[in-house]
Every structure is written in structure tokens, then in C-alpha cells.
TrEMBL record:
Highest taxon above the source species: Bacteria
Protein name as catalogued: Helix-turn-helix protein
Pfam families: DUF5753, HTH_31
GO MF entries: DNA binding
Domain (HTH cro/C1-type): residue spans on this chain: 13-66
Length: 280
């Protein structure tokens, strides 16, 4: 079960208990629960059932509008979004990544080796999936490509999110698809650069990117800032680590080309690929 999915509800419950100056052990006694049940509910280690949440609130003396706010929040977080469906060829951490992006106010992605999943064309995504899951070709991989497309649609259909993508220049030159498909990927990036803050970190700029892998920094209006790594590792929201990722992001942004310079570079690379194709 994802602790990320219900984080707003569980954080609100814990905050209400602390505001009531009530120890978790005393709350457990009032509810006739085990202390571990209170702990699992407050940390999101178990799905917060509406009955348990209602009992929890009433044990704190929370009722009326304040109670309704928490229950409405739980209802929103329980919504059956497509990325929570059973049977998807996706890890729990990847599902968390999509969920974070679906509600963040700002999304900042750093991609050191490959074009990030949120900006891949279908052909590019298929090539990456085929390489990563070489022993399971066919239908399962087609479904994984579909998941990548769904993730893109979920993020870019939103109007209230600011997206910044930082890509190391080597990722633009690395051939993972045919020349024709590579040009299509570059053209797609050039198009997306008109609607998001897309920056390339060029070969000749010093930056600390080699000390970290790909990551995405998600900021929220009413949640802790969180980092995910496209589902490769559990999401991170500890203050110390977030401070480090923020500093790293600022350094990468300082090393990157401006949006205008990035658009010029992408146009140049696309035109270069076109000339190569014309003489092939």
C-alpha cells in the first residue's frame, strides 16, 4: 500500500492529534485500538478506511466542518485513478511517481542519460522499454509503453502545474532509435519547449550531474516537497535530503542554457539530423 497516496489525509490526522495535545498511546486507549494501529494509520502504512478515520476524529473531538474537510480529503485520495488499478505492469514506486506528478504544483525533472519518460515519443519509449525488459518482449512491453503515454497525458493535461525539465546534452545525441525516429524525438522536444521550461545542460558547462541519477522534484501547496526517481526507488521527503536536492537543482539550472538557447540548440540538432537523412 502506498504511503504517498493518502499522505494528505494521514498528515492531517496526525496534525490534529498533536494540536489536541494528545499522545498516540492515549488516543489508542480511547479508541480501544492497539498503538500499532494508530501508528500505521498516521504513517499511511495501511489504507485509511472511512470508519477508522471517523472514529479517530471523534475521539479527538473533531466534528462538523473540520470533520467534513478531512473526510472529503480522504474521498479525493481514494479516487480510482488509472495508475492505481490492479494488473498494471507498474511498480508501486512508479505509481507513486505518477500520483505525485498528478497533484504537484511544480515538477522539476533532471535527466542525465536519456530523454525523460514524460517527454518520450512512443518509438523512443518502446526502445527504452525493450532494452530494460529484454527478456519479456511482446505484449507486456507494449503495455509499459502505454503506461508512459498515460503518465504524459496525466501531467500535461493539467493547467495548474509548472513543469521544468533539465536534460544533459549527451542524452540528445545518444542513439536509442533509428535516425528518423531520433529526429522525431528531437522535434517533439522542440515542440514541448514552447509550453514547458525545457533546458539543456551543454557539454561545456561544469555541473554536478554526474554525481546523481535522474530525479524529479515535486513541490505542493499543502504537502512536503518530495523527490521521486521514476519508480526506481521509494519517494523521498525527509527535510535534509530535500534540501540537498533543492541545492542540486539550483546548481543544474545555473549550468543550463536559457529556454531560448535550448530551443535554438534543438532546432539545430533537428536540422542536422534532417541533412544526415537527406544524404543517407
Amino acid at each position: 500500500m502506498s504511503s504517498i497516496r493518502y499522505r494528505r489525509t494521514t498528515t492531517r490526522l496526525r496534525d490534529l492529534r498533536v494540536a489536541a495535545n494528545l499522545h498516540a498511546l492515549e488516543l489508542a486507549r480511547r479508541l480501544e485500538w492497539s498503538p500499532s494501529k494508530v501508528s500505521r494509520l498516521e504513517t499511511g502504512q495501511r489504507p485509511p478506511h472511512i470508519t477508522d478515520v471517523t472514529d479517530y476524529l471523534r475521539a479527538l473531538g473533531v466534528s462538523g466542518y473540520a470533520e467534513r474537510q478531512v473526510l472529503d480529503l480522504l474521498l479525493a485520495e481514494s479516487a480510482p485513478h488509472w495508475w492505481w488499478r490492479r494488473g498494471l505492469a507498474a511498480t508501486p514506486d512508479w505509481r507513486d511517481a505518477v500520483d505525485l506528478e498528478a497533484r504537484a504544483t511544480t515538477v522539476t525533472t533532471y535527466a542525465p542519460a536519456l530523454v525523460p519518460e514524460i517527454l518520450r515519443t512512443t518509438e523512443y519509449a518502446a526502445a527504452v522499454v525493450a532494452c530494460r525488459h529484454a527478456l519479456t518482449p511482446g505484449r507486456p512491453n507494449n503495455r509499459r509503453v502505454g503506461l508512459a503515454t498515460g503518465r504524459q497525458l496525466t501531467l500535461f493535461a493539467r493547467e495548474n502545474v509548472d513543469v521544468t525539465v533539465l536534460i544533459d546534452e549527451p542524452a540528445l545525441h545518444r542513439r536509442v532509435v533509428s535516425p528518423l525516429e531520433q529526429r522525431a524525438q528531437l522535434k517533439h522536444l522542440r515542440t514541448m519547449a514552447e509550453t514547458i521550461d525545457l533546458r539543456v545542460i551543454p557539454f561545456d558547462r561544469m555541473h554536478p550531474g554526474l554525481v546523481t541519477g535522474a530525479f524529479t522534484l515535486c513541490a505542493f501547496r499543502d504537502e512536503p516537497t518530495t523527490v521521486h526517481t521514476d519508480g526506481d526507488q521509494p519517494a523521498i521527503d525527509t527535510p535534509e535530503e530535500i534540501t540537498e536536492y533543492r541545492a542540486l537543482t539550483a546548481t543544474l539550472l545555473a549550468a543550463a542554457l536559457t529556454r531560448t538557447e535550448t530551443a535554438t540548440l534543438l532546432t539545430h540538432l533537428t536540422d542536422t539530423d534532417q541533412r544526415v537523412l537527406a544524404h543517407a
